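Researcher: We're reviewing a set of sequences before deciding which ones to prioritize for further study. For each one, I'd like a predicted 3D structure that I can look through quickly. This is GDSL esterase/lipase. If possible, include the structure in token form so it fits the rest of the review sheet.
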Amino acid sequence: MGCRRIVVTGLPPIGCLPIQLTAKFKNPLDRRCLEDQNADAQSYNYKLQKLLPQIQKILPGSLILHANIYDPLFDMINNPQKYGKLHKSIDKIMNLNCIKHQ
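Model: Here's the predicted structure for GDSL esterase/lipase, in token form for your review sheet.
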């Protein structure tokens, strides 16, 4: 028995995670995705995708699929307007906060 159909997700664009950006950039307006961390995630995902068919051969009767979450999430981060109306951008939020505190 056991599980025979498995979906394995890769890593997201970890260089775009809010915790990573907060730790790296003090000024919110300077925040941008960290390319080196995203390159590491892409490298891991590539290696994982190449490894899964080898594992599937070892487990007869199994179906192992790789779910790419990196590309859609990266696109959502870089092109949010494609995925729905934006109510406030960080620039507007920062400007409103600066005006209130003056």
